[in-house]
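Weekly modeling sync, notes
Attendees: AB, CL, MP (scribe)

Item 1: holo prediction request
CL wants a bound-state model with zinc ion before deciding which constructs to order. AB pointed out that an apo prediction alone won't tell us much about the pocket. Agreed to run with the ligand included and paste results into these notes for async review.

Input as submitted:
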Amino acid sequence: MILSLHAQANIGEAMHALAAELYPICRSITGDGVRATLRRLQERIPLEIHEVPTGEQVFDWEVPCEWNIRDAFVADEDERRVIDFRESNLHVVNGSIPVHATMTWSELRPHLHTLPQHPDWIPYRTCFHRDDWGFCLTSRRFAELAARGERRYEVVIDATLAPGSLTYAEAVLPGECDDEVLISTHVCHPALANDNLSGIVVAVHLARELQRWNRRYTYRLLFIPATIGAITWISRNQHNLHRVKHGLLLSVVGDAGPSTYKRSRRGDAEIDRVFEHVLEHSGETFNILDFEPFGYDQRQFCSPGINLPMGCLMRTPNEQYPEYHTSADDLNLLSPEALADSLQKCVTAMRVLEGNRSYRNLNPCCEPRLGPRGLYRGFGSEGNHRELQKAMLWILNLSDGGHDLLAIAQRSKLPFALIRQAADLLIKHDLLEEQF
Ligand code: ZN
């Protein structure tokens, strides 16, 4: 899929529209918000939804109680809601235990969270895995309430935290072989757009594109809650991890910043080389970061006992944009062009993975005669033919068992698609044989 600008604009708008549809749903690491989100995705791609019961042991963790929320507010003595979950689901600390109480400002105040450096933004806070509760609000609203002095407030968090299950989903697109490409994105954030709706919509559209291919690899796309969801999935699929040959995490892929790829723990996995190549040939600025044991689910997939070859595609990395984990990470921060561009880069990367193989030159002692085979046009040949000839000579020279086509593309600085095209011509003329 090399999209025209017009097609790219259309697909970017469709991705943004899906993000807008999902934006109001109050997601968490468990509960009906995740289920509602996955059901919307199920209307677009073949998703199997899994439920894992509370209490199941997953490595050093346990599947937590299920959290569901219906309403939450702080109301003053005139019954006016001064903090209202219905205005923004970020107003409640995600995972809060239920509360029905009347309390003074001094009692309420330790449970309130603000961002003084951005007085009009609501912070996103969570209290998973501990019994706590709280509200998040703009520091402007906080100042107004503080100015009222020691009033009494009705505080309600109409939520349940009870045994239930953790929900995740998989889309499996079978290929010619059982070797898998694992693509994962988290689905646990409430009204936040770049982190994490951008990853969801790119993954959905990538799945739709992959559905149309004759696939060499089997593709498994995961839609899982961050951390505990990844730990749960890995724990339940330990016996199949050997099938995962390449992996990719998608997060913060919708802002206008340049693409950023974070390498796998291995650092030289094929997926790492693929993204280096794709970004180098994108004609745009980009960043490549080395692996670190923090940030998103590489913490789990690249933990030492698992060590999957899993890279992470982002644009501006999570903690480097000021709107991260605040109400300002909204739909305005998502650019349709950036979403479409991130998708295009994923599609190009998967094309490289599908086409990357190793070959052996069957005529390695001096050059084979390309002219009689119709592969050489001599002086004066121009444009694509000249580049194609260069590609053929590079392939013939480096197809000695030690270089795959991607390595040849990198060494020659030619785009992979051209190298693949040249390899196909050489195979057709019995000059190359696949090396397994
Ligand atoms: Zn996050």
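Recorded for review: DSSP finds twelve helices and 19 strands in the chain.
Action items: CL to compare against the apo run; MP to circulate these notes.
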